[in-house]
Structures are given as structure tokens and as C-alpha cells.
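Researcher: First entry.
Model:
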Amino acid sequence: MKLFSRLYRQVMMWAVHRHAPLYLSMTSFVESIFWPVPVDVMLAPMALARPQKAWYYAGLATLFSVLGAAFGYLLGYALWDPVVEPFISAMGYHDKIDVARQWFSDWGIWVIFIASFTPVPYKVFTVTAGLLHMAFLPFILISLVGRGMRFFLVSGLMVWGGVRMERKLIQYIDLLGWLCVVAAVIAYLLLRN
């Protein structure tokens, strides 16, 4: 079934859309607060479609992701009880917040770097940092470094791989897509308890 190759072609068309930088900025902002889709899903095809703008796109993603992180921090800091906690309860995310608190306890400020650079859900840590009243300036600086490293790495890989990588990706996109779906289902079944 060629579902993922059709999706890939659609994403590449969106990547060159004249409003793509605006959408990337908005996605980067909300992903740091609540949005479940990683910024890389939009950043990578944009950098691949227009490699001459890859560093600009990485900079936009970094800037707006850190601005979103600051907003998430402020939500956790000032609006935990009236806004964030009811949302967390409704979504059943208390266990994720408990894990974030434990990570802050174990690793301190370095957990922000881990969350900002790796696939760990960054949004959980931005809000929790505010809830725990973490020092704001170190939070912003470490977020800037971690998010910048991640997004510039993604853009750099797209520039480096270029047309050759795109050809390989197109060749195997459906297989890779279905493997990701199977892996996600297996991970869900293993981790749901």
C-alpha cells in the first residue's frame, strides 16, 4: 500500500509553500507547550526542498521553540492550578509529570538539555520547569543550546544528504512508514501498563 509515498509528496509540496516558514514557526512554538508532532517532521522536508534556506529554517525553529518553551514555563509557573493541572488530569498525563519531577530531582538543570535535544517530550519539561520554579535564565539558555543543536543537526543532515538521500528515501518510504507504525504499536502495547 503506497500510503506513505503519497503523504511524502504532499509534505514536500507543503515544504515549498510560501507560508511554510510561518507554519514552521507556529508549529515550533506550540510543540514546546502541548503539540504532539515533533518540529522535525516539518523542518526536515523544508530543509531538503530548499537547502539554501536550511540554516534559516533551523534558526526559525530554534527561536520559536524556545519562545514556546518560555510560554510553557510561564504556564507551569503562574497558571498550574487553574489551567495546566486540569488539562494534565483530563489527558491522563500525571505520570509523565511525575517522571519529569523525578528527572529534575535526579539531574537538575541538565534534564532541560536532554529534553530539548532528544525525542523526549520537551513540552512536559517546559511546564514542569515552571511548576518547580526553576531559574528562568538558565532554563532559556540551555533550551536555546539544546533546541539549536537538534534543529541545526536535522537541517545539516538534510543539506548533507541532499538529492541522494531523497532518492533513497522515496525508494523506501512506504516500507519505512509501515515499520514505524508497527514499532509504535509495539511500543504502545509494551508501555501501556
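Researcher: Second entry.
Model:
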Amino acid sequence: MKICIINGPNLNLLGKRETDIYGNVSFERFYNQLQEKYCAVEFDYFQSNIEGEIINKIHEVGFSFDGIILNAGAYTHTSVGIGDAVKGVHSPVVEVHITNTYSRESFRHQSYIAGSAKGVIVGFGLQSYELAIQSFLLES
């Protein structure tokens, strides 16, 4: 099984940025733990602060991977382009968020991705990614 994890803007600062909200573990450390725990899964990881690069990555893996886990960060609430990219590929996409976006500012309640996603997981910290992985494994 091949799963691509795509993280959007500012997620490269996990472990450093607003640790009271996002925790103090870097994504790289967490990603290494995922690779060890799910050794039967072939992971690809990509992070960008640039909308077009995220769209390009979705296009690149969206026809050959078994699944995409997408945390588009703030682009979730602003990018019709990323939403259209998700709609345009064949690989199922699970939208994830570390925080409960519905308990935050009202503009974070809108997602341009959710309508085309297989599912949405919010509010479980970094475990949101693991829940997404498990959703793909249950279907295989």
C-alpha cells in the first residue's frame, strides 16, 4: 500500500510553533514513528508553504497511490485550486487537521476539500494522521 502525506503551510514548524495548540513534536519525528509502526505501508511525505506545489504533488501521486492524507493547513479554507485538484484525481483523499477547526475562528469552519474527500478527521492532534492511515488499511 502506498500512502502520500501532504502537509501545507506552516506545518514545517510543528514542535516549534504555538506548542500550546499544536504540541511540541516535530512532524519529522512523528513521521519516523509512523514509518516504524506501519512498516507494510510505503509512505511518501511532502510539505510546502506554496499552494501550487501542493496542487502539483496531488497531481503527481493522485493516479498511482492508494491514498493521500492531506492537511492543507490554512489553504483548506481558501484554496478552490486545491479542492479542484482533490476532485480531479483518482486516489482517495482523507483531509486531516491537528486541531478541531470547528472550535476555532469561524473562517476555519469552511473547507474547499471536504466535499471531494473520502473523509475528514479533525481535532485528534497528530493522531489524526494515524486515524487516516487506519481508514486506508481497513479498506485494503
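Model: Note on the second entry: The first helix runs from residue 19 to 22.
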